[in-house]
């Protein structure tokens, strides 16, 4: 059938298959409309070819042949439009084919006049997102949401400001990531040097014939350093490139924000908005997972090698090793430790540190304290070789001498005091935890991470230096700091103790926990760095960190 050429305003009523006015319009599931006969013929060909059905307009594929629905409303609209355009259609039939008229939106960049009607472009069709004149709005955009260009510019300007704000926030976050990566690069260099020195300190303790193997160890460390450095540098380079792209886009956004011409602004804005949305959908990857892990593995491997070699040497030279004498010296050293600590505490009873005072505390009940409960676990790498950690790093006790195994030489281990620290450093505004003590003598302490761990003197004992505070539990309670201690009047009556730290206020309080909270003492101090809970154990003593989540 020969249909007349369709004027511009009826382009939307044409079938995309035959390019003619829709006849018996049918709607497919994706929402597009075609002549019933055209779409059926199209799918008949698809069925003969590969049995796949798709929309000729948008290309959407359907798993099976869709059921067509006749669009009655669209059929009525086509009929009414044809009646209104009979005169102009007859004229075009007589004059023959002509070029399609230009739409009012087909203007040169920055033009403010409709080329079709020579009218000002002061109307914005929100439905079609087009800049049009009043005549176009009346003729071709009936029923659409219409607004003024100026109002639309104002609205889009607000949207631009929000996008600019988010873009700057993204840039700030990327700059923080960049600084973090640069800091990690420095840590890698420091860790590489520390690992090299650490491994060297272990390997020099074995016989001279093993020195040649240290060259290979250095190469391994260098390889770890180069690999970790390359990974972080690559991530940093990618991040910096992305930051440069964001800066360029910010400049483009700033340029667009300064444009006075509303039409030019609305024409340029959509492309920049899409770029901004794509950045939100593709976040950058951060630093590779734990780039310092290979160095730690290398240290542990070399440490284990040194331990095994030393065990072999000790076994081969057992005939000349004075094990008995070393055992007596160890026992003597333990007694000296206990004596030194007791003498230090007794000497300090007469000079009590005046920063330890009793005051009204909040909260009062155990339920109120539990709202500040924190989770703790013991750090085996800090434990003295006489101590055994168990129960998921929640319990510590003395190891029987005959069952004692050679200790790994962790650099952060306490060498001469039966002490251990927790992994977690406390510096929250309020922290509370509880421990259970079995045995006659024990110390419950909090210490800075820099406490001395190598000295044989009182400087490495909890409560005997400026880096630690200690509650000592024996036949009496006493509190110690800087070597000064005060003996409390209360006798120990319960095995469970509570510790309540208010870091910012600088108070540390101790309680006996039973059916009620029995106040023991409050220490006042100015805490300058995180505090690590720690414990010292006497003979036949066991300390367990309570799981407050189950209480």
In short:
The chain has 551 residues and is an alpha+beta fold. It has helices spanning 36-49, 72-84, 86-95, 134-140, 149-203, 211-257, 262-281, 293-316, 323-348, 366-370; strands at 25-27, 33-35, 53-54, 61-62, 69-70, 123-125, 130-132, 146-148, 387-390, 395-398, 419-421, 431-438, 442-448, 468-473, 477-481, 484-487, 496-502, 507-513, 517-524, 531-537, 542-545.
Description:
By secondary structure, this protein is α+β, with helices and mostly antiparallel strands. The chain has three domains: 1-96, Zinc/RING finger domain, C3HC4 (zinc finger) (Herpes Virus-1, 2-Layer Sandwich); 176-301; 336-550, Jelly Rolls. The protein contains ten helices and 21 strands. The chain has helices at residues 36-49, 72-84, 86-95, 134-140, 149-203, 211-257, 262-281, 293-316, 323-348, 366-370, and strands at residues 25-27, 33-35, 53-54, 61-62, 69-70, 123-125, 130-132, 146-148, 387-390, 395-398, 419-421, 431-438, 442-448, 468-473, 477-481, 484-487, 496-502, 507-513, 517-524, 531-537, 542-545. A hairpin with a 4-residue loop joins strand 9 (387-390) and strand 10 (395-398). The longest helix has 55 residues, at 149-203. The chain is elongated, with a radius of gyration of 41 Å. The N and C termini lie far apart (86 Å).
């Amino acid at each position: 059938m020969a249909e007349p050429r369709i004027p511009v305003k009826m382009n939307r009523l044409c079938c995309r298959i035959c390019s003619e006015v829709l006849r018996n319009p049918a709607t497919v599931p994706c929402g597009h409309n075609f002549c019933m006969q055209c779409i059926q013929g199209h799918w008949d060909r698809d069925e003969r070819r590969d049995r796949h059905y798709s929309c000729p307009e948008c290309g959407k594929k359907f798993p099976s042949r869709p059921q067509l629905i006749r669009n009655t409303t669209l059929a009525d609209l086509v009929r009414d439009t044809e009646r209104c355009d009979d005169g102009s259609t007859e004229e075009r039939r007589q004059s023959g084919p002509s070029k399609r008229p230009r739409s009012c939106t087909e203007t040169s960049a920055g033009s403010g006049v409709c080329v079709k009607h020579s009218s000002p472009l002061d109307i914005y069709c929100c439905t079609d997102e087009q800049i049009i004149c009043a005549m176009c709005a009346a003729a071709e955009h009936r029923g659409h949401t219409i607004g003024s260009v100026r109002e639309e510019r104002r609205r889009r300007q607000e949207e631009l400001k929000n996008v600019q704000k988010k873009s700057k926030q993204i840039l700030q976050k990327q700059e923080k990531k960049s600084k973090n990566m640069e800091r990690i690069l420095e840590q890698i260099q420091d860790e590489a040097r520390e690992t090299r020195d650490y491994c060297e300190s272990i390997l020099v303790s074995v016989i001279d014939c093993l020195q040649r193997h240290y060259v290979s160890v250095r190469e391994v460390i260098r390889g770890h350093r180069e690999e970790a450095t390359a990974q972080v540098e690559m991530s940093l380079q990618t991040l910096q490139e992305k930051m440069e792209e964001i800066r360029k886009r910010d400049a483009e956004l700033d340029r667009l924000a300064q444009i006075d011409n509303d039409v030019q602004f609305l024409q340029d804005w959509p492309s920049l908005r899409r770029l901004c949305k794509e950045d939100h959908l593709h976040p950058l990857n951060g630093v590779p997972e734990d780039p310092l892990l290979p160095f730690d593995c290398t240290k542990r491997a070399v440490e284990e090698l040194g331990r095994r070699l030393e065990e072999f040497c000790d076994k081969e030279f057992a005939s000349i090793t004075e094990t008995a004498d070393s055992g007596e010296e160890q026992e003597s050293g333990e007694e000296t430790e206990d004596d030194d600590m007791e003498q230090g505490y007794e000497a300090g009873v007469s000079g009590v540190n005046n920063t330890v005072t009793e005051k009204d505390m909040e909260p009062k009940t155990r339920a109120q304290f539990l709202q500040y409960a924190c989770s703790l676990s013991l750090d085996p790498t800090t434990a003295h070789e006489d101590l055994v950690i168990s129960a998921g790093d929640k319990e510590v006790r003395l190891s029987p001498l005959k069952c004692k195994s050679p200790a790994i030489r962790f650099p952060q281990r306490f060498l001469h005091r039966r002490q251990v620290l927790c992994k977690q450093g406390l510096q929250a505004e309020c922290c509370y935890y509880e421990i259970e003590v079995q045995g006659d003598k024990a110390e419950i302490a909090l210490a800075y991470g820099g406490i001395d761990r190598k000295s044989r003197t009182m400087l490495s004992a909890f409560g005997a230096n400026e880096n630690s505070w200690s509650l000592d539990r024996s036949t009496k309670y006493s509190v110690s700091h800087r070597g000064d201690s005060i003996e409390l009047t209360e006798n120990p009556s319960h095995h469970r103790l509570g510790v309540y730290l208010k870091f910012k206020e600088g108070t540390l309080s101790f309680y006996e926990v039973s059916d009620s909270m029995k106040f023991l003492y409050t220490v006042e101090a100015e805490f300058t760095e995180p505090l690590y809970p720690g414990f010292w154990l006497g003979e036949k003593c066991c300390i367990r960190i309570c799981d407050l989540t189950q209480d």
